[in-house]
Amino acid sequence: MSNQPHILVIDDEHQILRALRTILAARQFRVSTAATGEEGLALAAAGQPDAIILDLSLPDMDGVSVCQLLREWTATPIIVLSVRDGEQDKVQALDAGADDYLTKPFGIDELLARIRVALRHAAAQAQVDKKTVVTAGPLVIDLAQHFVRRAGEEVKLTATEFKLLAYLAANAGRVLTHQTILSHVWDPADADHVEYLRVFVRQLRKKLEDDPEQPRFLLNEPGIGYRFLVDE
Amino acid sequence: MRHIWTFLANEKRVLPYLLSIVSTAIVTAGLLAIRERMEIATVALLYLLPVGASAAVGGLGPGILAALAAFFSLNYFFLPPYGTLLVHQSQDILVLLMFLVLAVSISQLVGRMTTSLATARAREHETTRLYELSLTLSKLHREPDLLTQLAQHTLETFQANQVEVFTESENQPGLIRMPETGEVETNLPTQPTALASLQGRQHLLGEIRLWRSGRPFSPAEERLLRTYASQGVLALERIRLAASERAARVLEESDRIKSALLSSVSHELRTPLATIKAAVTSLRSEDVAWEAEARRDLLAAVEEETDHLNQLVGNLLNMSRIEAGALQLKRRWNVLAEIAAPAAKRARLAGQGHRIELDIPEELPLVYVDDVLMEQVFNNLLSNSLKYSPPSSVIKITARPQDEATVWVQVDNQGPAVSESDLEKIFDKFHRVTAADQITGTGLGLSICKGIVAAHQGRIWAENLAGGFAIRFTLPVQVEGVAPRIPSE
After folding, report:
1. If you ran DSSP here, which 8-state letter would residue B364 be given?
2. Which of B304, B307, B338, B367 to mutate to test binding with chain A, by most A CBs within 10 Å of its CB?
3. Domain end position, chosen among A110, A126, A142
4. Residue A117 and residue A207 in one domain
5. What range does the domain containing B23 cover?
């Protein structure tokens, strides 16, 4: 076993597989590729990859079901690839356990950034019991002690604001769908009330971000949900 | 005693018979008091009064009853010997017989008149109800509305306990029940009281089922119900025909669009492809050793053109969806600034030193839109502004509340004015104000914006400003008259 991170790419387009294999190998990743869902699941079990890049349209099975099957036994980060306008598919995949998504066509810097976030997130998840403090730039969020500091100063948050921030921060790097956040922070019955999120995220940004209009930490994913990003 | 009154009140049909007996009795009592001074002919004449009145009020049956009652009273009380049904004088027998014939014929005549008047009234009522029904149905354009109205009218006209209108169509069977659930009577029998099939020209469309307890269904009502059903069928077939005609027209239109698109788009697709191909083949060729800067330029061109192609494909997709009426909005409450900001950021990168300014007040209400499609509107408007306005000029996005239910949004630039006659046309597909060879584009951007804004029940229009040009549109901030409610904590 080398200590190069191992990436499994599941996509039925050979040109994409070829390009990703070359590009990722050049960036010191170990890459294996699968062209069908079946093959991908087998390789995931055999190769124990550190991250999986999964295309949603596969010839033999639905990408969302691949996601579900993987989540039955592994917490390996999954980054979903899909074409534009597939918001519904992306939401389904994220709800089925995917960590992140990328829209085709994508820039390679974007993909590499997502892979790095996913790997770091996985590492953080591994020691989740110990980790109750999330740090992002000037922000320190103590999940256990219920306080937030910004550049050393305590930020006063309401109970709901803190609950929302804590949930996003505990899942830093992951894209969380509106429904998931609403069900966790409010109530499953409120899963459709995206307006709650809009208002509370805006309040949080005003308290936490340098420029609430150009947020660094609380990122909007149009049509899908939100992501709390810990700066590199 | 009390339940006799209840019985009378309930059984309206008994009342006229009772009235005929009572009225004859009153006349008898009145005449008895002055029996000695009256001629038998006068008495007989006066007895015709209750007969005529009963026939007029109650119809034939009560009339005949009054005639018989009067006949016997006349005989018993007024023809000697009094107090018996015997008659002594032959002249009296004649009077009596004449009276009976006269009374019966009067009651028949008046009774028939009354009955036909009642029938005419009932017919008039039927015609009015039928007219109301056909008038209501003719105004409707949606099948569920039609079925609901049909059920509602049937329920009211027949004073039924429950009405069901059941329809079968290719898509799905439908069942409308009146009164609507919640007040459904559970103790109704499974078999409906009356039933009328909705028989279309080609096949059975469904049926009307009616439950009514108490009164039985008369043949006239059966007939009326069938007429209701045929009115329903007419309206139903009209709506379905209109729907299939609309579908056919959309298909035809989308065919026309497709061919127009293909010719316009193939050029637009090939231009970036040509650049990409040229750049990549150059970089791959081994005859030239490219300088680092030249390589960067070529590669930047490839990247820009790829983005351009991607945007083009996105626009084409949305266009075809708008055209096919298949644009599916995932409307949610959104912060407008959050939608506009990424588009503005993208435009800053793509522009030639253009300044993109956002003027969206913090307190602007949430807008009820599909954020992904709305971002496309901003992308298209900004990309148009970048194309038509001079480098380093200012492009501004402004949003303000218009009234309680709407906000307006404006994207303006310092580009050239558009002639008044073109202000409307720029939203048409493939319409280009500037010659096509000067500025690239498919002429789809604004028509997509129009399609998306219209799908949000908004309005979009263009205006020339002093020293610039603006596109404005409106967006809803209320759903069914209500703004979103946010829990305070």
Report:
1. P
2. B338
3. A126
4. no
5. 2-121
Using left for φ > 0, alpha for ψ between -120 and 50, and beta otherwise, residue B430 falls in left
Cα–Cα distance between A181 and A191 in angstroms, integer? 8
Please tell me the distance from the alpha carbon of residue A144 to that of residue A131, in angstroms, as a whole number: 9
| Contact yes or no for A32/A38 (Cβ under 8 A) | no
> Residue B114 is encoded by which pair of tokens?
């009354």
| Chain B CB contacts of A158 below 8 Å | 489
Domain that holds residue A94: 6-126
Residues of A in contact with B339 (CB under 8 A): 222
Report the 10 Å Cβ neighbour count for B205. Answer: 20
Taking phi over 0 as left and psi of -120 to 50 as alpha, with beta for the rest, B441 belongs to left
Element (H, E) at B459: none
Q: Which run of H or E residues covers position B260?
A: helix B219-284
Amino acid letter at A139?
Answer: L
- Kindly determine whether residue B372 and residue A87, on different chains, have CB atoms separated by under 8 Å: yes
Distance CA A199, CA A215 (A): 15
Please give the Cα distance from B413 to B382 (Å, whole number): 9
**What is the pLDDT at residue B172?**
67
Residue B320: predicted pLDDT? 78
Listing DSSP states for B153-176 in one string gives HHHHHTT-SEEEEEE--SS--EEE
Of A90, A106, A126, which marks where a domain is finished?
A: A126
Give the nearest chain B residue to A86 (CA atoms): B372
Query: Is residue A178 one of the residues assigned to a domain?
Result: yes
* B188-244 pLDDT tens trace: 777 888 888 888 888 888 889 888 887 788 888 888 889 899 989 999 888 888 888
Instruction: Tell me whether residues B489 and A202 touch, CB distance under 8 A.
Output: no
Helix (H) / strand (E) element for B215: namely: none
Instruction: Look up the CATH number of the domain holding residue A47.
Output: 3.40.50.2300
**Least confident among A173-177, B40-44, B350-354:** B40-44
Calculate the average pLDDT of chain A.
89
Distance of CA B377 to the CA centre of its chain: 31
Q: How confident is the model over B69-93, as pLDDT tens digits?
A: 888 888 888 877 787 777 777 777 7
Whether residue B366 and residue A220 make contact (CB cut-off 8 A), yes or no, is no
B398, B356 in Cβ contact below 8 A?
Answer: no
How far from B411 is each of B382, B386, B415, B464, CA to CA, in Å?
7, 11, 12, 12
Looking at residue B436, its pLDDT comes to 46
